[in-house]
Write a structure and sequence with these properties.
By secondary structure, the protein is an alpha/beta fold. The protein contains ten helices and twelve strands. α1 crosses α6 and α2 packs parallel to α3. Bound molecules: NADP nicotinamide-adenine-dinucleotide phosphate. NADP nicotinamide-adenine-dinucleotide phosphate (NAP) binds next to α1, α3 and β4.
Length: about 300
């Protein structure tokens, strides 16, 4: 790796977080709160604007750039491929080039959707990718661009959850189900999609741990441990909440979706464990998020 040495981050330099109004970004900024964090949402830094990215990264001179910006509308991407590519691929290329030019370490988040979902055991980082939708292809390309930055970390996450009840932005599947359960509504959940749900607090902590440890560059699956179908995940959340809401089973074939969803997309986090960062089980994460001991002052709350 020329011009870049894997090592601990220079603590005097700031951590730059892009896409800072997003869900995961809130948790990431919190995980680095004892460092100087420069958190820039889209109006402050549009990552598709190459000149602005170059200028901002040079001015901030961060030790690490953590890219939380993304175009996440999986259905919308089928009609707006250029918008998805602009953020998920070319925006990442801008950040990778700027990080390389300044010696900052790039951390970028990707997705289980880079796989085709035909597996029968959790995907590892070395498994072949085969994106099935425009969103998935744009994220796949983003991975390639990110890895061009010396020292880059590409962290694949999936099925993120953990928003607080007063979160005002868009919610992920489990967050949306939990909001309906809180008001006693029944929820529909797939019985034939297998996932590894990922608590954003745990993802953010693991991100911090990898950065602090100067982890070897490459792809890591940063998900909670275990796997389940969506109806089981929803049932666990309902149980912890103590709600009367029913989980209504549905299958992929019953829902018209233009962008194909991978049916089996559990990710193995064995590489992360081997690197010294075991992740808690997803049931434990749901308990910490929704259980009686969940703290009121959770990072999503103050920042929405
Ligand atoms: N959520 C999941 O379950 C999931 C699953 C797999 C992978 N991931 C990945 O995890 C990462 C974090 O996801 P998330 O759920 O936290 O996303 P999110 O809540 O949708 O946040 C994404 C943020 O990116 C911002 N953004 C969009 N275009 C931008 C641009 N051109 N320049 C700067 N900022 C821009 C958005 O701003 P606006 O609000 O102004 O558009 C938004 O604040 C992403 O890489 C995502 O692809 C998420």
């Amino acid at each position: 790796m020329r011009g870049w040495r894997v090592g601990k981050i220079e603590v005097l330099k700031p951590v730059l977080v892009t896409g800072a109004s997003g869900r995961l970004a809130t948790f990431v900024a919190e995980a680095f709160a004892d460092r100087r964090v420069v958190a820039l949402s889209r109006p402050a830094l549009d990552i598709f604007d190459a000149a602005a990215v170059r200028r901002t990264v040079a001015e901030v001179a961060p030790a690490v750039v953590i890219n939380c910006a993304a175009y996440n509308d999986v259905e919308g991407a089928e009609d707006h491929a250029s918008a998805a590519l602009a953020v998920n691929a070319f925006g990442v290329r801008n950040l990778a080039r700027a990080a390389a030019a300044t010696g900052a370490r790039l951390v970028h988040y990707s997705t289980d959707f880079v796989f085709d979902g035909e597996a029968d055991r959790p995907y590892t980082e070395t498994d072949a990718t085969r994106p099935q939708s425009i969103y998935a292809a744009s994220k796949w390309l983003g991975e390639r661009f990110a890895l061009q930055a010396p020292g880059a970390l590409v962290l694949r996450v999936e099925s993120l959850f953990g928003c607080s009840p007063d979160w005002a932005g868009p919610r992920g599947s489990l967050d949306a189900m939990v909001e309906r359960m809180r008001i006693g509504q029944d929820v529909k959940a797939f019985t034939d999609r297998v996932v590894t749900p990922s608590y954003m607090e745990d993802v953010a902590r693991a991100t911090r741990a990898l950065v602090d440890a100067g982890a070897e560059s490459g792809i890591y699956h940063v998900v909670n441990s275990g796997l389940a179908t969506w109806d089981r995940v929803a049932a666990e959340a309902a149980h912890v909440l103590g709600t009367e809401s029913r989980i209504l089973p549905i299958t992929l074939s019953e829902v018209r979706m233009r962008a194909p969803r991978p049916r089996y997309c559990a990710l193995s986090n064995a590489k992360l464990t081997a690197a010294g960062f075991p992740m808690p089980e997803w049931q434990d994460a749901i308990q910490r998020w929704l259980g009686p001991r969940a703290l009121a002052g959770h990072p999503g709350e103050a920042r929405t």
